[in-house]
Each structure stands twice: as C-alpha cells, then as structure tokens.
Amino acid sequence: MNKKPEEEFLPTLSLALKTIFPDASENLISNYKKHLSDVDEFDSVRIITPNRMWINQHGWDAYYAAIDVFATYGLTSRHRDKNSRCIYHFREIDDLFQVRDGIQNNNSAPNAFCIPPSLHPDYQNIPNAQLVPIGTAWILMKVGSLSSDFGKDEKFFDI
C-alpha cells in the first residue's frame, strides 16, 4: 500500500478500530469501517464503548436509553450516523464537546457521568455515588483514505 506522507506514521483505520473495539470480530470491524467511509477527512468522530461494570449496575436498557441521548442530542427528530449506538460523527470538534456538556448540564443521561477516580476516596461512604462511567470515550479523525489519528478521552465522562 502506498501511503501519502501525512499518513506514513499514523495507524490504519483498521488498527484504530481494533484498538477501540478489541473484542470485535473482523466482520464487525469491517462494518465500522464502512460506517466511517462517509466521514470526511479531519472530521471528528466520537466513539463510545460500553463499560461492563456500568451495565452490570444499571442494565442494557438504561445503557441504550443514555446512549440514544448522545445520538440525538441537539437534533430534531433524527439520529446521528445511521442509527449507530457507538459511532457519532461531528463536522467540528467543538460540537462533540458541546453535546457532552449539554447532556451533562441538563442531566439528560442520568448516571452516564461519574466522579473522577482521583476523588473516589472522598465518596466511598456515600450511597449511590456514581463512581463508574457508562463507557469509554474515544476521538477518531480520518487522515487520508487509509489512516487515522485517535485517542482515548479519559475525562469525557467525569463530572
């Protein structure tokens, strides 16, 4: 494969998706790649993967209800990105943070956000303290047709 110079040191889209979704089958990775084929170069993509501890605490129905808020927040009668429950495309990087802030400030997805780990000792004896985030948030940007730049957003779900 001949990569452009700007793609030379960046991970492939497949490698990025395999890192973000380590348990996903090749077929599912291929579906995610197709899903991302419509994303323009350098557009921001928010990816949220579920946290099993949160699911065990609240259940899948609560997870899907909260995730659907991320998929529809700020939109009128439509769903982001082909009804995805994990991949959300934004034209501007600021938009993905505005959606996050709006959901958190309006308490639109109860229990999705959590107390940061550094503050857990202060909340150990408080019943119902939300210490577990709903999932792991990632930011991905396509760079060229074959490469991507991505990273985990460690603070996305912190209160």
How does this model look, in words?
With 159 residues, the chain is of the alpha+beta class. It has a domain of 111 residues. Helix content is 35%, strand content 16%. The chain is built from 6 helices and 4 strands, in the order ααβααβααββ. It has a 4-stranded antiparallel β-sheet. β3 and β4 form a beta hairpin. α3 crosses α4. It is globular and about 50 Å long.
Continuous helix count = 6
Question: How helical, in percent, are the residues?
Answer: 25-40%
N-to-C CA distance: 44 Å
| Rounded average pLDDT | 84
Main pleated-sheet profile: 4 strands, antiparallel
Order of helices and strands: HHEHHEHHEE
Taken from the alpha-carbon principal axes, the silhouette is: globular
Extract low-pLDDT stretches: none
Portion in strands: 15-25%
Number of strands: 4
In order across it, which strands form the biggest sheet? 2-1-3-4
CA radius of gyration is 17 Å
SSE layout and pairing:
Layout: H1 13-20, H2 26-36, E1 44-50, H3 52-58, H4 60-72, E2 87-90, H5 93-105, H6 120-123, E3 135-143, E4 147-152
Antiparallel strand pairs: 1-2, 1-3, 3-4
Features:
159 residues, 6 helices, alpha+beta
Could you write a compact summary of the structure shown?
The protein is about 35% helix and about 15% strand. By secondary structure, it is an alpha+beta fold.
